[in-house]
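step 4 of 6: structure.
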Amino acid sequence: MLENRKLILAHFWLAFAAFGLALLMGAWQMFVRSPLYTWISNPEWYYRSLTAHGTVMGYVFPTLVAMGFGYAITESALKQRLVGVRWAWVGFWLIVTGSIMAMVPVALGRASVLYTFYPPLIGNAFYYIGVVLVVVGSWIWVALMSINLRVWRRTHPGEPVPLAMFANVAGSYLWAWTAVGAALELLLQIIPVALGWRTTIDAGLARVFFSWTLHAIVYFWLMPTYIAYYTIVPRAIGGRLYSDTMGRIAFILFLVVAMPIGIHHTFADPQVGAGFKFIHSAFTALVALPTLLTVFTICASVEIAARLRGGRGPFGWIPALPWRNPIMLAVAFSFVLLGFGGAGGLINMSYQLDSAVHNTQWITGHFHLIFGGAIVIMYFAIAYDLWPHLTGRALPSLKLVRTQLWLWFVGMIVTTFPWHWVGILGMPRRMAYYDYADPAIAPQAFSVTLSAIGAFILLISGLLFLFILATAHRQPASEASEYRFSLPIHPVRSVPLALNTFAIWVALMIGLTITNYGYPILTLAARSDTSVPAVYVGAQ
Amino acid sequence: MSTRELFTFKNAYFSASVGITAGLFVLTALGGFILLPYLQKEVRFASLWDAICSAAGLPQRAAAVATGKVGPRLTEAVLTPTMLARPSQESIGRGATLAHRCAICHGPTGLSRADSPNLAGQYASVIYKQMLDFRSGARTSAIMSPFAADLTDQEIADVAAYYAYLPRLPAYHPERKAPKPRIVIYGAPLRGIAPCGSCHGSLDNKVGSPWLEGQSEVYMREQLLAFASGQRRNDISQQMRNIARAMTQQEIDEAAAYYASQPPDVVKAVD
Amino acid sequence: MTVQEDHHGAEVAVRTEKRWAIISVLIIILLAVLAAFAGIHRATMPQARVETIDPTRLHVSGEFVESNLGSMLESNGTVTVRAIGQQYSFTPACLLVPAQTPITLRATSADVVHGILIQATNVNAMLVPGYVSEQFMRFEKTGDYLMPCQEFCSFGHEGMWGKVKVIDKAAFAERAKNGGRLSCVGE
């Protein structure tokens, strides 16, 4: 039951259009800093593009996907009309306004500070205000998810919340809380300086605030992907979900431990105590748990589908899988990329190993592999799965869809594997050009070239994706069946209250934030002698 | 559904999750605040409490350490990016009066005909810092040092404000059609040279760095050579010596010639 | 499928699931123990103290004045290296250190956030203005290393590369015997 198709389509189309533009910039960046191109004569253009690419890919694109998907889940999983459609449109237009407001100063070169802000560098105030508006728009969505669940509970007292909606609401709460760190940094620290009300800023405190957001935001990006693993994949390949309970536990674990671990992003920083670095490092290990649980449940669910199709033997079931089904292909690719990316993540989580790769190209390779690879490929799958229900028309060609997914998978590997390698060689991040002619870094030239080629494969795949979605609107109308999510193999009759509600978990998340972040933040915020003069970027 | 039902240790989910989380926190806190500090051989802690405070990240002022003496010729000017911003009309007026004595060399409109720097529209912080350094002896010049000797901080700020206020004019230097030298646009990364414009105004301005377009070629070459040889060292923490030292003679010539031939219209404003 | 069979199937499923959950927890404990072990035995640890400093006055007084930057042989045989990062260079631009000697690197930033990374080593620290970064290091072999700034520090970031030169321990001691601060600037 998808009533507000226009709303959902608006979110998806804005997300994917922004994604297309940012992808173009990404490919351009990979090209100009590679040995394939002579050095760029104005490095500021590179940093400008990098700021736009990061801001769109990090804040705008995944937020819109989560929102659009969240509205679709609300209507189809709860089987009720979305409550607060008007507010949903307000949220959407806030994001549009915020994105434009942020991107104008970036395009004019007045805010080339990168999406990570990095005070005391300060850009134009409208950039930061635009980002805040995007976040505020998404908070409306968070509120709507919560309200819609409450409305449903009133008519279905004591019933288990459908897993898709449970996960969706967990994701929205995670986002609401994790966005607070960057919001505090922007509202209390950066924007007053950008507006000229203050001229000094505590750069160390700003980095602590940002780490609050920076790690868990990845899990917010991941949420739609995991929801798709649990609730779309088993149904789409003709199987059953192995376990509904494990799904709930995985999403609860994400909600609780994804956020209070962010200080591992500041391992090499001088303003955080070693004790808190250790605590966050240990808690970071925990966040691997929901992923391990998910890998098991999804593999088991996929196996069920294979056995239903006649697969036999300990491994013989694998060829029996519906490999021509795009969703099957996407989840397989996503798992492979998640496996490599997760292994890299385990390395970053350890202080000792991280110090060999911190802020090298390894890190960029790592999060492109996780986000661009494992996560975004499932965004594609979600779009392909939902599109016929949103447009009332079938996708033009499954062969084209498969080609697109293959290209993305191959492109992501060609891009990120050499990227990791040059990181191990010590290539630093975020430079507009490198002197590959110098014998000291000449060995990196080949790998960087490969990465740039990979970026173009990704660009082709991304454009193909947009082409498929666009042409789908012109296909002959066909009645799509009702949109539904996968069923667990053993029907869920009742769920313990704790696994059907969020109160304990939200309380635990906030409690852990206080224990893990309270002291590092307060001790710096209470001092005035750690503030340093702001440096206005681009001599404004 | 009631909160009382959830938040009770009778609820296995509540007791297990709170117990595990709290246990893990206590365990890691013991490890992080007590065990690990004492495993670090290079650091000695005064007491257990000192170890805990340090591991928690309680900020301490850097301990006073024996330092080498600051040489007499190093700058003591302290610059911040927003200092001297938006000077008053009175300050500019006083600066104009003071500037009469500068006009012989620096020109009545702030454009020099004598290979002295053009000052019209130069960043205020640049003029301010150089005058402070001439006064303190961090930078020496037979002509400038006596002029600076008896100026107060306020007078120096006034002169800086006046010249910063004057419009940037194209200089008298002939325009050449030479291509932009590599050293100016790209720098030389592995020699530690960033593009000139990333400090000197065409891309970004680092506080205290002048814009250079249309300045005297002879003057700029001399200064680069003086920085390279260490004869001039009033740049804060070697920021310009680091660059000039790494430049070749040819690059110094090219950069000086290039900047001398440029009109000042690419220079970014700074307030 | 009868209700009973279904019930039995569900039990099997739960049991398998629990087994996997236990394995997952064990994997994570193993990883944590490995990380802790590396921390204790390889002794690369985050800096022990948070120290603050005024970045605008580094050159005026305190341990980061120009004449105190560079490498210094301590009386106990270890070496302390002091350096600053600023847009867009490190001072000293070339660090000179001895091989096979415990070295303490103390560094800070004079303006914006920078990073100090010595390629092919695990020396890697952020320089955040207002705070002093401290890292212990040791080089086994002599040689030259690149030391790029690893954090975006505005539009000249791509040109911020320093160098490290590791020389023989005896040669270093010879050069250090007159006191003073050593660097390989201009070599």
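step 5 of 6: annotate
 - The beta strands of chain A are 121-122, 200-201, 532-533, 535-536.
 - Residues 252 and 424 of chain A are 35 Å apart (CA to CA).
step 6 of 6: archive
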